[in-house]
Every structure is written in C-alpha cells, then in structure tokens.
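Protein modeling request. Please complete all fields; requests missing the sequence field cannot be processed.
Requester role: graduate student
Desired output: 3D structure, token encoding
Chains: 1
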Amino acid sequence: MINVPVGAAVLIAALRCLPVASHRTARRLDLPGVATLSAAMLLLVVPLVVGRSEGWPVWTWVALAAGVPALALFLAVERRITAGGGSPLINVQVLARPAVGWALLTLLAATGTYYALLFTLAQYLQLGLGQSPFISGLTLVPWVAAFGAAGQLVRRLPPRLIPVAPCLGCLLLAGSYAAISAALFNGDHAEVLLVVLLGAGGLGLGIQFSSLIGHLTSAVPTEYAADISGVSSTTVTLGGSIGIAAFGTVYLSLASHAGPAHATNAFAITTSVFATVALIASIAAYLATHTNTTRTHNSSHPVHTGTCYQRNPCARRRRRLTSATAQWRERR
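Delivered output (332 residues):
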C-alpha cells in the first residue's frame, strides 16, 4: 500500500521529466550471469535467514560453504563472456580496479549495518522494551532526516575534503554505534540520547554514501557508467540482505531470554559489532579514495581510480591534453 503507489508515481514522473538518451545500444541479457549470481546469493543468504530458527542443520553449513565457489564460478562466467566480446551482467574489469573494489566493500559493510539496525532496533524497542510500533518508527526519523541532509552537505564541501569524506562518514557512523553501545552498557536508556546518536549515525552514513557514489562515478570511464550503477545498487541490496541475516541472527541469539535486561544487553553487543564493521568500512573507504591513477589499454581514455583527479585542476588539463594528442595521432 506504500511502495507500489509511490513507485508508480515516480515511474510516471520519470517518463515525463527525465531526458531520453540520444544514443542507445541494445544489450542481450546475460542469462548465465543471472543464473550463477542468483544461485550464489541464495546459497549465502538463505542459510543465514533460516539457520537459527532451524537449529543450524548440516545443509545450512554446506550451503554457506558452497556459496564461495558459486561466486567464483559467477566471476569466471563473466570473464569468459567479456573475453568473447559479449555483454556481461557485470564487467569484471571494472570491479578489478582498487578504487572500485574498495568502494563497493565500503558500501556493502556500511549499508549492511544500517539495514541490520532497522531490524534489530525494531526488535529491541517493541519486543524487548514493549514500545509501540509507532514509537519504534518515530525513533528512526532523525536518522533518515540526517541521511537526507548529508547529501546537501557533501555538495558544499571544499574540494580538499571530498577525498576524505567517505572515511570521515564511516568514522562518524562507527562512533555513533559505539556511543549507543557504551550508553546501554552503562545503564543509560534515555530515549533522547538514543535519538541524538541515531541522528549522528544517519549523518555519517549519508556522508559516506553520497561522497562514495560520487567517487564511483568518477572512477570509471563513461562507457562503464551502466555497469558501475548496476553493481553499486546490487551491492547495497546484497549488503542489506546479508546484514539483516547475519546481525539479526546475532541479536536474536543473544535476546533469546525474555525481559528488557536481556534485550538491552543483546542490542548493546550488536551495536558494538556494528561499530567494528563500520570501522573496517572506514579503512576500505580510505583505500578506495587514495589509490593511484591508472590507464586503460586505450591511452585516449585515462581511467581515474581515486579522487585526486577531482581536486587537481592540473590533472584535468593533462587528461584533456592526453586525449587530444591521442586523437590527433589516430587521425594521422
């Protein structure tokens, strides 16, 4: 009753307002890639979702172990399709760039904690503390509002701060999780404090997300824009699914006994795990935005794998000069 009407309205607005691409190239659907990626994700996610409720039978561990070679098979299929001149579901060459790989790992980790927070916080407030769904939903409003405001903040950052914005956002996110955990361990259950810390976490996640998406779009050539857009969206979705399954299992296992005390302790431990993962994400974000510039096989298309290009006017002039020189040589 909410997603479908909103989605229909957005679709109508997109058809009326968004420009139509003047140059389009038809691409066949990569059915082998879809099949192998879907199988790999099912092998990884399904055991995490149902494993605890089923008592972790043998098949869940077998499926988890099989998920790793299934992912390797997917990458092999994509490489073969690319080498044959086909249209792969995901261009593996794009993922091989350090700036892209580390950035996607950051998105996977940070977004995974957020979706897991949505699930575990609702469990904690409603089942653990006995609050209503309405109060549980309102508690997250500061997070969502701060996340939206972060995009406008990132747009106004000075150029020298853009490369460090993803790392700083992850650090703010990790600090918020750690503060929530410390407050709960110290017996401070004030709703106001929780709301404030959730707002800080939403701001950190928003800064990380907005700046990192900008980094990804500038880290690959224009012809790979569709690939990186699809990969980043898929990464966010997978991060959310795996995060809910993994961290949700941690919380539910710790909160198996009834009572606010057990629920509070379980949520405090879970948020400390969130903080650790967000801290790891900050390291990955730093590596993503501080890699060197590389080039493709075609010298007329330099590929940027870090953010130094965005903040260096000389680099932009060198890129234009290099491209113009290569085009002149081709004409000769």
